[in-house]
Structure prediction request, 146 residues.
Amino acid sequence: MDFFDVLKISGSALSAQRLRLQVISNNLANAHSTRTSGGGPYRRRDVVFSTSSNPFSFASHLQSEMDGEELGIVRVAGVIEDPRPFRRVYDPGHPDAESSGYVILPNVNIIEEMLNLISATRAYEANVTVMQATKQMALKALEIGK
Prediction:
Protein backbone atom coordinates (compact mmCIF):
# COMPACT_ATOMS: atom_id res chain seq x y z
CA MET A 1 0.00 0.00 0.00
CA ASP A 2 1.50 3.32 -1.02
CA PHE A 3 0.88 6.88 0.11
CA PHE A 4 -1.78 7.48 -2.52
CA ASP A 5 -3.80 4.45 -1.42
CA VAL A 6 -3.83 5.75 2.14
CA LEU A 7 -4.93 9.18 0.94
CA LYS A 8 -7.69 7.63 -1.21
CA ILE A 9 -9.01 5.58 1.71
CA SER A 10 -8.95 8.53 4.11
CA GLY A 11 -10.49 10.82 1.49
CA SER A 12 -13.36 8.41 0.90
CA ALA A 13 -13.92 8.14 4.66
CA LEU A 14 -13.95 11.96 4.93
CA SER A 15 -16.62 12.20 2.24
CA ALA A 16 -18.71 9.48 3.90
CA GLN A 17 -18.48 11.11 7.33
CA ARG A 18 -19.36 14.50 5.83
CA LEU A 19 -22.58 13.02 4.46
CA ARG A 20 -23.24 11.39 7.84
CA LEU A 21 -22.82 14.79 9.53
CA GLN A 22 -25.29 16.34 7.07
CA VAL A 23 -27.87 13.62 7.74
CA ILE A 24 -27.45 13.98 11.52
CA SER A 25 -27.86 17.75 11.21
CA ASN A 26 -31.02 17.23 9.18
CA ASN A 27 -32.36 14.85 11.85
CA LEU A 28 -31.68 17.40 14.59
CA ALA A 29 -33.25 20.22 12.58
CA ASN A 30 -36.43 18.18 12.08
CA ALA A 31 -36.66 16.69 15.58
CA HIS A 32 -40.00 18.47 16.14
CA SER A 33 -41.37 18.55 12.59
CA THR A 34 -44.86 17.12 12.71
CA ARG A 35 -45.68 17.87 9.07
CA THR A 36 -43.61 16.99 6.02
CA SER A 37 -44.31 17.30 2.33
CA GLY A 38 -45.04 13.55 2.26
CA GLY A 39 -47.54 13.90 5.08
CA GLY A 40 -47.07 12.96 8.69
CA PRO A 41 -44.09 13.58 10.94
CA TYR A 42 -40.46 13.54 9.88
CA ARG A 43 -38.85 10.09 9.93
CA ARG A 44 -35.25 9.84 11.17
CA ARG A 45 -32.63 8.92 8.58
CA ASP A 46 -29.33 7.09 8.92
CA VAL A 47 -26.35 6.53 6.63
CA VAL A 48 -25.19 3.02 5.77
CA PHE A 49 -21.53 2.55 4.86
CA SER A 50 -19.94 -0.26 2.88
CA THR A 51 -16.52 -1.21 1.59
CA SER A 52 -15.52 -2.79 -1.67
CA SER A 53 -15.10 -6.24 -0.11
CA ASN A 54 -15.66 -8.33 3.01
CA PRO A 55 -12.91 -7.23 5.46
CA PHE A 56 -12.87 -10.58 7.26
CA SER A 57 -12.30 -12.86 4.29
CA PHE A 58 -8.80 -13.42 2.95
CA ALA A 59 -10.19 -15.04 -0.19
CA SER A 60 -12.34 -12.02 -1.02
CA HIS A 61 -9.36 -9.70 -0.46
CA LEU A 62 -7.19 -11.81 -2.73
CA GLN A 63 -9.87 -11.93 -5.42
CA SER A 64 -10.44 -8.16 -5.16
CA GLU A 65 -6.71 -7.55 -5.51
CA MET A 66 -6.54 -9.81 -8.57
CA ASP A 67 -9.57 -8.04 -10.08
CA GLY A 68 -7.93 -4.65 -9.51
CA GLU A 69 -10.58 -3.39 -7.09
CA GLU A 70 -9.67 -0.73 -4.58
CA LEU A 71 -9.63 -2.16 -1.07
CA GLY A 72 -10.71 -0.20 1.94
CA ILE A 73 -12.53 2.54 0.06
CA VAL A 74 -15.50 3.67 2.14
CA ARG A 75 -18.70 3.98 0.17
CA VAL A 76 -22.13 5.19 1.17
CA ALA A 77 -24.45 2.27 0.50
CA GLY A 78 -27.47 4.47 1.08
CA VAL A 79 -29.45 6.68 3.39
CA ILE A 80 -32.23 4.71 5.04
CA GLU A 81 -35.23 5.71 7.09
CA ASP A 82 -35.39 4.49 10.68
CA PRO A 83 -38.31 2.04 11.05
CA ARG A 84 -38.79 2.73 14.77
CA PRO A 85 -42.27 3.99 15.69
CA PHE A 86 -43.09 7.66 16.12
CA ARG A 87 -43.47 9.16 19.59
CA ARG A 88 -46.90 10.08 20.90
CA VAL A 89 -47.07 13.04 23.27
CA TYR A 90 -50.15 14.47 24.95
CA ASP A 91 -50.43 18.13 23.89
CA PRO A 92 -54.03 19.10 23.14
CA GLY A 93 -53.02 22.69 22.31
CA HIS A 94 -50.74 21.66 19.44
CA PRO A 95 -52.12 22.46 15.94
CA ASP A 96 -51.44 18.89 14.77
CA ALA A 97 -53.00 17.20 17.81
CA GLU A 98 -55.45 14.37 17.20
CA SER A 99 -58.98 14.55 18.61
CA SER A 100 -57.70 12.65 21.68
CA GLY A 101 -55.10 15.39 22.28
CA TYR A 102 -52.04 13.36 21.27
CA VAL A 103 -49.43 14.65 18.82
CA ILE A 104 -47.36 12.24 16.75
CA LEU A 105 -43.73 13.41 16.85
CA PRO A 106 -40.73 12.25 14.81
CA ASN A 107 -38.75 9.22 15.93
CA VAL A 108 -35.66 11.39 16.49
CA ASN A 109 -33.88 10.99 19.83
CA ILE A 110 -31.84 14.16 20.46
CA ILE A 111 -29.36 12.42 22.78
CA GLU A 112 -28.73 9.63 20.26
CA GLU A 113 -28.23 12.18 17.49
CA MET A 114 -25.75 14.16 19.60
CA LEU A 115 -23.77 10.97 20.29
CA ASN A 116 -23.80 10.18 16.57
CA LEU A 117 -22.65 13.73 15.88
CA ILE A 118 -19.70 13.37 18.27
CA SER A 119 -18.82 9.98 16.78
CA ALA A 120 -18.91 11.30 13.21
CA THR A 121 -16.85 14.34 14.18
CA ARG A 122 -14.20 12.16 15.85
CA ALA A 123 -14.06 9.85 12.84
CA TYR A 124 -13.66 12.87 10.56
CA GLU A 125 -10.85 14.25 12.76
CA ALA A 126 -9.11 10.86 12.82
CA ASN A 127 -9.11 10.69 9.02
CA VAL A 128 -7.76 14.23 8.77
CA THR A 129 -4.95 13.19 11.15
CA VAL A 130 -4.19 10.14 8.98
CA MET A 131 -3.97 12.35 5.90
CA GLN A 132 -1.67 14.81 7.67
CA ALA A 133 0.59 12.01 8.95
CA THR A 134 0.74 10.48 5.46
CA LYS A 135 1.67 13.83 3.98
CA GLN A 136 4.43 14.26 6.58
CA MET A 137 5.79 10.77 5.85
CA ALA A 138 5.84 11.49 2.12
CA LEU A 139 7.70 14.77 2.70
CA LYS A 140 10.23 13.02 4.95
CA ALA A 141 10.73 10.33 2.29
CA LEU A 142 11.44 13.05 -0.26
CA GLU A 143 13.94 14.70 2.10
CA ILE A 144 15.78 11.39 2.51
CA GLY A 145 16.10 11.15 -1.27
CA LYS A 146 17.95 14.48 -1.51
Observations:
- The helical segments are 3-29, 58-67, 110-144.
- The longest helix spans residues 110-144.
- The CA atoms of residues 3 and 134 lie 6 Å apart.
